[in-house]
Amino acid sequence: MTVIYETADHGSLQTPPVIFKETPEGPQLAVEVVSIRISDVGSWRKMSRQLSAAAAVFFLFVYAGMDLAHSSGWNQTLNVSASQQFECSWFIGVLAGAAISSMAMSFIPKLPFYVLGALMQLAGAIMYATAPYNYSVLLAARYVAGIGVGLITVPFIIHSAEVASDNYRGISGSMEQCGLALGIAIQVIVDSQYVDDRDASVNQIHGILGIVLCLLGLVLTSLSIESPIFHIRRNQEETARRCQEKILGNFIYNVDVAFEEAKGYVQDSKQLTFCQEASQMPLVKVLIYRGFVAFSFSLPLTTSLISSSLLTEGYIGSWPVTVWGLVRLLGTLVAQAFLERLGRKLFSLVALFCMGSLILSMAFMYEDSNNVRSYYDMLQIRSLGVAIQAFAGLFVCSSPVYLGEAFPLRVKPLLVGYVVGFEQTVHIINIIGYRRASSAFFYHYYLSVGIILLLGVILFVVVMPETKRLTLREAGRRIQRWHNLRCF
């Protein structure tokens, strides 16, 4: 008789059947096969270790989300009027931090970036809390905190993709957007509820919450486990294996297979020529994809919601504003749950199509300039704005996942930093364009953005791959292709 013991999946790895045979002394008889499945009692423990990078910086991204919202119009405080420089300063800081980290992380582990970024964010939060009425101090705080976020973002996107196994890479990478969405919700609610309260400074509340979040993030950076790939590239195989064992625990077969896969990933990258590494196709794909994230939360969208809420409800602290802040968070949580089940491509592109269609509908509402004084039309604009944020949350979660999977190893930090910097540039252009706009700005802006997003859907259907439950090496190969028509 032959007995086959099957073990449950460990991430993307499966233990091969172990077969025990009893050799009969007589003639060969028919073989009866019995399958016994052993459950994986340590799956939750393994998942928590593979999400160590996400857990280490989640609260830092929450505070980054508060700063993002503060830069995108949610600074209705009576204490300081927001100038163009004030709104652009944080994005400029993120761009600078991303440039620094992308050039340095090839020879520096991820943990120093997390700690330094957390300390810079903490410094910015302290400035907000201690000098809420001083414009110069607040401006400096925004630059400092922005640099801190830039130092964290590029290492995290790469780190989360390298540490998580095939089944958890989507969850790990999407934690960036989940943290940002939570921070946006907090800032929107706080700013709208305290805008008319002269006894409380919104800037001071922003700083106090930032201090708490940064301290939590600073403590949790101790959970970070360095990627084995970082050490393999330096021929430190013993150190790399210890890191792999920390990630996967005492599942020896899984550690062996994952370690060999990591070595294969590094070896494949070494064999690529410079022209292959610098291939523009993956860069163009993720550059446009990540750029669309900037359109999902912008100063024009904030202004439309605030003006429509003031006309329809009479004050900014109304329930539609709160819902507007929360639906994006809900969308990211739903998307995160389905990235490894339904996949990245189809789910995200349906959300992007809906978002583009809604923005285009909003453009037509602004076509007649008299509509901005119409209760009914502004009610429709408010409803469209809420729906846009819901679908935006569903779309944005896949962007850091694709970004972590793209590009060969040697050029990955530079190109990821370039893409993150491009996203900040789109934010800055949105702000400058809004500040210098004419009365017909909203119609032309939403019409242009809606058309661009819908054209992007057509492009991504052809070129973006589905990378659900693929190894990092296989996902990178698919992104290198010119066309990927498969949607699931």
From TrEMBL:
<dbReference type="InterPro" id="IPR005828">
    <property type="entry name" value="MFS_sugar_transport-like"/>
</dbReference>
<feature type="transmembrane region" description="Helical">
    <location>
        <begin position="137"/>
        <end position="158"/>
    </location>
</feature>
<dbReference type="InterPro" id="IPR036259">
    <property type="entry name" value="MFS_trans_sf"/>
</dbReference>
<feature type="transmembrane region" description="Helical">
    <location>
        <begin position="287"/>
        <end position="307"/>
    </location>
</feature>
<feature type="transmembrane region" description="Helical">
    <location>
        <begin position="207"/>
        <end position="225"/>
    </location>
</feature>
<dbReference type="GO" id="GO:0022857">
    <property type="term" value="F:transmembrane transporter activity"/>
</dbReference>
<feature type="transmembrane region" description="Helical">
    <location>
        <begin position="415"/>
        <end position="433"/>
    </location>
</feature>
<feature type="transmembrane region" description="Helical">
    <location>
        <begin position="113"/>
        <end position="131"/>
    </location>
</feature>
<feature type="transmembrane region" description="Helical">
    <location>
        <begin position="178"/>
        <end position="195"/>
    </location>
</feature>
<dbReference type="Pfam" id="PF00083">
    <property type="entry name" value="Sugar_tr"/>
</dbReference>
<dbReference type="GO" id="GO:0016020">
    <property type="term" value="C:membrane"/>
</dbReference>
<feature type="transmembrane region" description="Helical">
    <location>
        <begin position="445"/>
        <end position="464"/>
    </location>
</feature>
<feature type="transmembrane region" description="Helical">
    <location>
        <begin position="319"/>
        <end position="339"/>
    </location>
</feature>
<keyword id="KW-0472">Membrane</keyword>
<feature type="domain" description="Major facilitator superfamily (MFS) profile">
    <location>
        <begin position="1"/>
        <end position="468"/>
    </location>
</feature>
<dbReference type="InterPro" id="IPR020846">
    <property type="entry name" value="MFS_dom"/>
</dbReference>
<keyword id="KW-1133">Transmembrane helix</keyword>
<feature type="transmembrane region" description="Helical">
    <location>
        <begin position="51"/>
        <end position="69"/>
    </location>
</feature>
<feature type="transmembrane region" description="Helical">
    <location>
        <begin position="386"/>
        <end position="403"/>
    </location>
</feature>
<protein>
    <recommendedName>
        <fullName>Major facilitator superfamily (MFS) profile domain-containing protein</fullName>
    </recommendedName>
</protein>
<feature type="transmembrane region" description="Helical">
    <location>
        <begin position="346"/>
        <end position="366"/>
    </location>
</feature>
<keyword id="KW-0812">Transmembrane</keyword>
<feature type="transmembrane region" description="Helical">
    <location>
        <begin position="89"/>
        <end position="108"/>
    </location>
</feature>
